């Protein structure tokens, strides 16, 4: 079982410095993309073809709409939107070759057509070569935007597109950028959100911009479209994310409040959360808490520790204040048990719900 824990760490189930650096690099790449697109929209200097892709769907939609507005404004006659897997390449080519109606250019938007993914058997889709050939002779009067949630960067079409067009990858952003974005979004809607409220909102619901945008809209509406949004408002209105629920359950178990921990586990099952996912998150959180405790006395700031541990600054502060009585040995045990329960489920040695109960019981044992 000890080996399984080592393997679990090596596969990246728990936060690592490498993963954190990769996430920071990805966020920096997206910031460069945002800056470049902003310049293009401001100057009117557009690429003939765009590929908007990546995991951050909110930014894909935002810049798809921003480019659309900048390129053709409200001209619906010269804008065609094609969606879904049933992408008709013949129709696409015909539309792109059609002269715009009393306008400088025609815009074709293609959403999630799947052509930038491998075909059956892992090979290139037949229509990808045809699209590649056509894009080489795309008329100057047409502009194309592909918006894809999933792309395969190994494909020849993707590599070719990066040469003749503009590939814009939107990755998940870091908390500092998201905080500024939240504050600016609230301001644009007539409300004021300070750094504390922005941090509290991220801590509570995570870093998904779609969710954060919806929660910000709720908070602005709660304030009547104006006024100061506080961390207290966030606590009253914002939905609680899965990791926060599990963290609260873990806290109860570590403090020996097993009745409450089991009640919270029952609530999670009622929300149809997968037990094995709960186990993985518990193991990850034990590792994060241990990292914070190991940094005690180092003289490092909460922000520095948070960056290394993959946590928010607010969560680091909370751990330092409220986890003083939790021993390092107990946290290490939690990591070990999580790895063992994960393997037991995967090998069929334990039923998944029972495995979580055993893990919680182990964490809530004699302290």
- Distance between termini? 23 Å
Characterize the quaternary organization of these chains: single chain
Over all CA atoms, what is the radius of gyration?
25 Å
Q: Please bin the fraction of helical residues.
A: 55-70%
Number of strands: 7
Unreliable stretches (pLDDT < 50, length at least 5) are 1-16
Widest sheet, order of strands = 2-3-4-1-5
Number of helices: 17
Task: Indicate how many domains the architecture comprises.
Answer: 3
What is the 3D form?
globular
As for the CATH topology of the largest domain, it is: Rossmann fold
The CATH architecture classification of the largest domain is: 3-Layer(aba) Sandwich
Q: Note the main sheet.
A: 5 strands, parallel
Overall pLDDT, averaged? 86
- What is the CATH C-level name of the largest domain? Alpha Beta
CATH superfamily of the largest domain: P-loop containing nucleotide triphosphate hydrolases
What does this structure look like?
By secondary structure, the protein is an alpha/beta fold. The protein has three domains: 25-169, Rossmann fold, CATH 3.40.50; 175-237, Helicase, Ruva Protein, domain 3, CATH 1.10.8.60; 241-363, Zinc Finger, Delta Prime, domain 3 (Up-down Bundle). It has 17 helices and seven strands. The protein has helices at residues 2-10, 17-43, 57-72, 89-97, 126-135, 156-164, 175-188, 195-205, 209-222, 231-237, 242-254, 258-270, 275-294, 302-309, 313-322, 328-346, 352-363, and strands spanning 49-53, 79-83, 106-111, 142-148, 166-169, 191-193, 227-229. Helix 5 links the parallel strand 3 (106-111) and strand 4. The model is unreliable at 1-16 (pLDDT under 50).
């Amino acid at each position: 079982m000890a080996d399984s824990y080592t393997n679990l760490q090596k596969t990246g189930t728990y936060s690592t410095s490498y993963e954190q650096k990769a996430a920071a690099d990805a966020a920096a790449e997206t910031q460069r993309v945002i800056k470049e697109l902003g310049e293009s929209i401001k100057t009117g200097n557009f690429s003939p073809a765009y590929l908007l892709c990546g995991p951050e769907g909110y930014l894909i939609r935002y810049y798809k709409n921003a480019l659309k507005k900048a390129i053709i404004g409200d001209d619906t006659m010269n804008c065609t939107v094609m969606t879904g897997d049933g992408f008709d390449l013949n129709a696409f080519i015909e539309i792109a070759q059609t002269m715009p109606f009393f306008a400088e250019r025609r815009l074709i938007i293609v959403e999630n057509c799947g052509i930038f993914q491998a075909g059956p058997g892992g090979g290139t889709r037949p229509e990808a070569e045809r699209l590649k050939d056509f894009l080489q002779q795309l008329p100057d009067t047409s502009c194309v935007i592909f918006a894809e949630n999933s792309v395969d960067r190994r494909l020849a079409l993707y590599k070719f597109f990066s040469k003749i067009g503009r590939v814009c990858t939107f990755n998940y952003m870091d908390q500092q950028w998201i905080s500024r974005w939240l504050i600016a979004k609230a301001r644009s809607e007539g409300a004021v959100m300070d750094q504390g409220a922005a941090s509290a909102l991220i801590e509570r619901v995570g870093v998904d911009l779609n969710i954060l945008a919806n929660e910000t809209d709720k908070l602005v509406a709660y304030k009547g479209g104006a006024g100061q949004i506080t961390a207290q408002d966030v606590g009253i209105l914002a939905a609680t994310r899965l990791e926060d629920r599990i963290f609260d359950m873990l806290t109860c178990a570590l403090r020996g409040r097993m009745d409450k921990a089991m009640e919270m586990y029952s609530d999670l099952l009622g929300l149809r959360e997968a037990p094995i996912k709960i186990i993985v998150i518990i193991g990850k959180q034990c590792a994060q808490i241990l990292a914070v405790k190991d940094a005690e006395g180092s003289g490092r700031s909460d922000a520095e520790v948070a960056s290394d541990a993959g946590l928010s600054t607010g969560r680091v502060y909370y751990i330092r204040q409220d986890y003083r009585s939790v021993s390092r040995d107990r946290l290490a045990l939690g990591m070990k048990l999580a790895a063992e329960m994960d393997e037991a489920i995967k090998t069929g040695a334990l039923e998944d719900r029972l495995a979580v109960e055993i893990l919680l019981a182990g964490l809530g044992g004699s302290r």
